[in-house]
Amino acid sequence: METPVILKTNYKGNIKEYFAIPAGKLHTDLGVINLDELHAKSFGDTIRSHLGAEFVIQKPKAPDFFKYAKRTGAPMMPKDIGIIISNTGLCSSDHVLDAGTGSGILAIYLGGIAKKVVTYEIREEFMEVARRNIALAGLTNIELRHGDIAVEIQGLDEKFDLITLDTMDASKVIPHVPRVIYPGGYLATYSPFFEQAKEIRGAIDKTGFTEVTTIEIIEREISFTDRGTRPSTSRVGHTGFITIARY
Ligand SMILES: C[S@@+](CC[C@H](N)C(=O)[O-])C[C@H]1O[C@@H](n2cnc3c(N)ncnc32)[C@H](O)[C@@H]1O
């Protein structure tokens, strides 16, 4: 697998960027870039299109995979991923259990920090996309497994510091979490609807967690224009509710 790159240029005051795999030709508004030339270059070097536009070569980070990786469905947004990471204190010795993998975006963020991430996806056809995204991210500590987490969790003989559930049936998985979570470990669930969040809270209440909280993260970008400075009028609305519980 080739390492992907971000190619970035400033064109008349606007930043233009492309996510590319170093092979073949990339056709851009600013000319054709011969991507084979990337093999002789390093991050921070520049590459020119046939029209002379100069692009800086950057190493992609997790937010670039959120923006550019192929998707099988809606990935979790960075604002929601961030709150899971900060509220669970995810660190480099942690083992994480994640489901469903989806496009693998949450798994990629988690894998960049944790020691190991095991991620389950029920739909085999989605696994190929996730597998490629994870490989492009260069992460070898993410193990992608096929299966229904509600069933698979019952046969696991591993333990985890953090369990992330981004599936509609998360409440069915929760009763089995105590068997596979380290004492003091965290469960983090993502639910787009109030009804689902309520089901999750019900399951958590019956399972003996402590420090339970359900939150929604509202992100406001500030726009700076000649007319003035204010919260942007176009913004991300509701995404989901995050429930975090400690065992
Ligand atoms: C919203 S997506 C997850 C997105 C992912 N967190 C990301 O950031 O890319 C939900 C995924 O869970 C999978 N899924 C649903 N129920 C599942 C289950 N019981 N076990 C495993 N995967 C499941 C779906 O097929 C879908 O790909």
CATH T-level fold name of the largest domain? Rossmann fold
Radius of gyration from CA coordinates:
21 Å
Strand residue percentage: 25-35%
CATH homology superfamily of the largest domain: Vaccinia Virus protein VP39
Parts with pLDDT < 50 across at least 5 consecutive residues: none
Overall structural domain count: 2
What ligands are attached or bound here?
Answer: S-adenosylmethionine
Number of helices: 8
For this structure, what is the CATH class of the largest domain?
Answer: Alpha Beta
User: How many beta strands in the DSSP annotation?
Assistant: 15
Largest sheet: 7 strands, mixed
Give the helix level as a range of percent. Answer: 25-40%
- H and E string: EEEEEEHHEHEHEHEHHEHEEEE
Coarse morphology: globular
Task: Note the topology.
Layout: E1 5-11, E2 14-20, E3 25-28, E4 31-34, E5 46-48, E6 54-58, H1 62-68, H2 78-88, E7 95-99, H3 105-111, E8 116-121, H4 124-136, E9 142-146, H5 149-152, E10 160-165, H6 170-173, H7 177-180, E11 181-191, H8 194-207, E12 210-216, E13 222-224, E14 229-231, E15 241-246
This protein binds S-adenosylmethionine.
The site of S-adenosylmethionine has 23 residues, from helix 3, strand 8 and helix 5.
Report on the structure:
It is a single chain. Helices cover 26% and strands 33% of the residues. The chain has 247 residues and is an alpha/beta fold. The strands form four sheets. Strands 9-8-7-10-11-15-12 form a seven-stranded mixed sheet, with helices on both faces. The protein binds S-adenosylmethionine. S-adenosylmethionine binds at residues 72-76, 99-100, 102-106, 120-123, 126, 148-150, 166-167, 169.
